[in-house]
Automatic annotation (TrEMBL):
One of its GO terms (molecular function) is carbohydrate binding. It comes from Vagococcus bubulae. The lineage of its organism: Bacteria, Bacillati, Bacillota, Bacilli, Lactobacillales. Coiled coil: none annotated. PANTHER family: ALPHA-MANNOSIDASE 2C1, MANNOSYLGLYCERATE HYDROLASE. It comes from the Bacteria. This is Alpha-mannosidase.
Length: 898
């Protein structure tokens, strides 16, 4: 009887783009697929090929070989080509919760069009694994996940390091999420290339198998051993069946088979021992030496992350909610257009793409894809707002006014000051020469200096006139030719107070004096900005002291800009040995008030740092020699240049957040810029927004093996430190890396400029130095025990602008002011309001912001009834909706019209 069974799975881990531009990898993919289809027809012993868990490969292949569609379909139907369950292999930490969801939803849907997907959560090379994976996979009907990172150490060129720093004694384990959902976890303990290029000659085969079998046996919990026959962009091994036949001859007591994940998982999961370890939550290599967590990809090419945030917010939080609201009017939902936008966006979400760790050509192409998806989202949002505003009743607004509607498509109430531009008067080109029309309107505009805003009840709303200007614009009617014109545009500042989530309100711009208080927010004697919630004292060196007026607790000397050298790469930050940080407040600083009104105060802090121009020349030689970053000796150059930081502090009348916008023209190389906020808090843990989770992490590394002097972490919209009574929440826009320093200071990375890709060779990436003008946005909120969860939701809302649409006076079937979705749940964060994929039911999704306590929750949509659904929008067996949401629960509801 044979003792062991070796399952050999042929595959190729297909990074769609990485150290070569996309089309270079694309052409190699065509060759791979051609070879596979030939083997399927000519070698009956070739069991199957695992297509890397991503269906986009099929799209990419058939784009060039459309005539091969039937052959591909036949191969999938016959089980030769194993596909799914995802659309792409994403970096799960750097894309949004919804993007992770849509990747699975679209991947499963497209897989099922071809055949049966492989129901395995496939994360072979993801740079760490999100803690909610078990719940998300189970919600999609997937009971197992395979991954290469996060538990066992890996090193340079993905070399597997065999030591005791290993959370599981086996390559098989249970993986439990924060909500206690548990699935089977499979670690590629010897990487996903442990069975690559199997020899077909006796001597080489014996040497190969002696080592490979020993390595696999070291971690296997059963007699079922897995050998992955492939690696990155690996051509198919055409003689693998001959190699397997030879192995069976050489080892008669072991059965070697060419197999697939379906068969392997069925075998191994039916034979698991009782002593498997359970790993919990995030798998981020925190039990290793810390050098290859790859978390610093969160700060590589920050411009990529900022653009990704913009597009995700457009699709998830603006376009989909507006199109959902408009559906009852239009009876149409842009399913196909949104699918196109989502697929275009997700082409930027593979781990070597969104992580910013590819060659420059890759990231140039990514920016074009971002723009394509963004413009689709904007177009669809504009169509939806036009449909809505055309049917919103504005007849009760003053006749001599200009009506407009403001939409809050965030999942939380807004209290903020917005600026919007309203067309006051126009002259079409059909009425005269453009320059004459411009001059005519310019003269009229000079007489317009007083405006105010009223709501639908005629109440004057706090507002301020910003500018009156004349400019060119045009209309694009759907039923006739374009209409160019000149117009007077009035830009106003408007205070939104207690503006409900998922709602709209109608306003009108009226000529005449505004009624506002004379008291402004800035006190020039104390150099302090103050509203009802917070007081910000600006020191002469640019640091700020923040006082929470509800607790009278002051957080001194925040807004510290820190600059250090970086001799690492796109994957890993490495500060030069003995490098001394430079701080902006140690350099000349000027402070100027640029706006001071009853509604808003903006103060510009300008700091003139002198920093090294680059690393010294030795770094170039070390990169060319492929010297690992830990062994580099290069220092920062002695040549200095001016690095100017311009930070605008903004405090609004009714807003608890202190908003910051920092601009700089980066002409330096090989450095990192962070902003630091000392908290003075005594606490051992902090929280940050992750995927469907506010994850709690230790402030310091709890691992004796850790060697990296830094401990970078991922975040989405915020990171927060708090104790039992108070704390600080730092919001951001596309700044995905932070670190908690030893004195409980929050450090958010604003820029990391490096010159090479890194990993297994030398690939120069001059554009990763991020030269040129840059800007970043973040916000500070000091919290109490009662405002903690609200601060998290306000941080999410910080990334979601309101939508404003000008309209006309008319009657309509929709109310002037209306709340489409109401949310009564302090700990609930909404992530989606959309229509069911290719259906008309409404889908809402969100999660419990706490991993410890359940919370009351009530969602309401007028004339709709909710039913419990899973993340791929299928109704559950028990469709009743609870009035509480359990700890770390992801809730998807499917709403049907009454």
């Amino acid at each position: 009887m044979k003792n062991k069974k070796v399952y050999i799975i042929s595959h190729s881990h297909w990074d769609r783009e990485w150290y070569l531009p996309y089309e270079q990898h694309h052409m190699r993919l065509i060759r791979l697929m051609d070879d596979l289809l030939e083997i399927f027809e000519t070698n009956p012993n070739f069991n199957s090929f695992h297509l890397d868990g991503q269906t986009i490969i099929l799209d990419d292949y058939l784009q060039v070989r459309p005539e091969k569609k039937e052959a591909v379909e036949r191969a999938i139907k016959n089980g030769k080509l194993r596909i799914g369950p995802f659309y792409i292999l994403q970096d799960d930490f750097l894309i949004s919760s919804e993007a992770n969801t849509r990747n699975t939803l679209i991947g499963l849907e497209e897989s099922k069009k071809w055949g049966n997907p492989v129901m395995l959560g496939y994360f072979p090379d993801t740079f760490g694994n999100m803690g909610q994976t078990p719940q998300m996979m189970k919600e999609a009907g997937i009971k197992a996940a395979a991954f290469g990172r996060g538990v066992k150490p890996t090193g340079f060129n993905n070399a597997v390091i065999n030591d005791e720093k290993y959370a599981s004694q086996f390559s098989e384990m249970w993986w439990e999420g924060p909500d206690n959902t548990k699935i089977f976890g499979l670690l590629f303990a010897n990487w996903y290339s442990n069975g690559n290029e199997i020899p077909t000659t006796k001597k080489e085969a014996i040497e190969f198998w002696e080592k490979k079998l020993a390595d696999a046996n070291q971690y296997a919990s059963t007699d079922h051993l897995l050998m992955m026959n492939g690696v990155d962009h690996q051509p198919v091994q055409k003689d693998v069946t001959q190699a397997i036949a030879l192995a069976n001859e050489l080892y008669p007591d072991i059965e070697f088979i060419h197999s697939n994940f379906d068969d392997y998982l069925a075998a191994v999961m039916s034979d698991l021992p009782d002593n498997l370890s359970t790993v919990t939550g995030e798998l981020t290599s925190q039990e290793t030496d810390g050098w290859y967590t790859l978390a610093n990809t969160a700060s590589a090419r920050i411009y990529i992350k900022q653009k990704n945030t913009e597009v995700q917010r457009q699709l998830e939080n603006i376009t989909e909610p507006l199109a959902t609201m408009a559906y009852d009017i239009t009876k149409a939902y842009p399913h196909d257009e949104l699918r196109y936008a989502w697929k275009t966006l997700m082409q930027n979400h593979p781990h070597d793409s969104i992580c910013g760790c590819s060659v420059d050509e890759v990231h140039r192409e990514m920016m074009a894809r971002f723009d394509k998806a963004l413009e689709v989202g904007k177009y669809l949002a504009d169509e939806a707002t036009l449909a809505l505003t055309s049917n919103i009743d504005t007849s009760n607004l003053p006749k001599n006014s200009k009506p407009f509607v403001v939409f809050n498509t965030a999942g939380v109430e807004k209290n903020e000051v917005i600026e919007t531009t309203i067309e006051w008067m126009r002259r079409p080109f059909s009425e005269g020469k453009p320059n004459e029309l411009y001059d005519e309107l310019k003269q009229i505009a000079e007489t317009l200096n007083e405006f105010h805003v009223v709501d639908s009840d005629g109440t004057i709303i706090p507002s301020e006139l910003v500018t009156v200007d004349v400019a060119f614009d045009y209309d694009l009617p759907t039923d006739r030719f374009r209409i160019p014109y000149m117009a007077i545009f009035v830009t106003i500042r408007l205070s939104l107070a207690s503006f409900n989530e998922m709602s709209w309100q109608s306003f009108a711009l009226v000529e005449g004096k505004s009624q506002t208080s004379d008291k402004t927010l800035f006190d020039k004697n104390t150099q302090t900005i103050e509203n009802d919630y917070v007081k910000v004292a600006i020191q002469n060196n640019g640091l700020i002291d923040i006082t929470n007026k509800e607790t009278n607790i002051t957080y001194p000397s925040g807004l510290i800009f820190e600059n250090v050298g970086d001799v690492g790469n796109e994957y890993i930050f490495k500060q030069p040995e003995n490098d001394i940080p430079l701080y902006a407040h140690d350099f000349p600083t000027t402070i100027n008030v640029i706006t001071d009104t009853p509604l808003v105060c903006e103060v510009l802090i300008e700091q003139q740092m002198m920093i090294p121009l680059s690393a010294e020349d030795l770094l170039q030689e070390e990169m060319k020699a492929v010297i690992e970053m830990r062994d580099r000796k290069a220092q920062r150059s002695k040549d200095l240049g001016t690095f100017t930081l311009k930070t605008t502090l903004r405090v609004e009348k009714n807003n608890r957040q202190i908003k910051c916008h920092t601009e700089f023209d980066n002409q330096m190389r090989d450095h990192r810029l962070r902003v630091l906020f000392p908290t003075g808090l005594t606490t051992e843990t902090h929280v940050a927004e992750s995927i469907f989770e506010v994850v709690e992490r230790p402030n310091t590394v709890q691992n004796k093996h850790w060697e990296n002097p830094t401990n970078p972490q991922h975040q989405h919209s915020f990171v927060a430190l708090r104790d039992e009574t108070h704390g600080m929440t730092i919001s951001n826009y596309g700044l995905n890396e932070y670190e908690i320093l030893t004195n409980n200071t929050i450090a958010v990375t604003l820029l990391r400029a490096v010159g090479e890709l890194g990993d297994w060779g030398y690939f120069p990436t001059p554009e990763a130095q991020c030269l040129g003008k840059q800007s970043v946005d973040f916000a500070i909120e000091v919290t109490t025990e009662n405002t903690l969860f609200d601060s998290y939701k306000r941080a999410q809302s910080f990334q979601i602008p309101t939508t404003v649409k000008q309209t006309t006076h008319h009657t309509g079937v929709l109310a002037s002011n209306y709340q489409f979705l109401s949310i009564d749940g302090k700990q609930f964060a909404l992530t989606a309001l959309k229509r069911q994929e290719f259906g008309e039911d409404i889908i809402t999704r969100g999660f419990n912001l706490s991993n410890q306590t359940s919370s009351t929750l009530n969602l309401e949509i007028n004339e709709y009834i909710p039913f419990e659904a899973n993340m791929i929008e299928e109704l559950k067996e028990n469709t009743s909706v609870s009035t509480t949401i359990e700890p770390a629960k992801i809730q998807t509801l499917r709403w049907k019209k009454k």
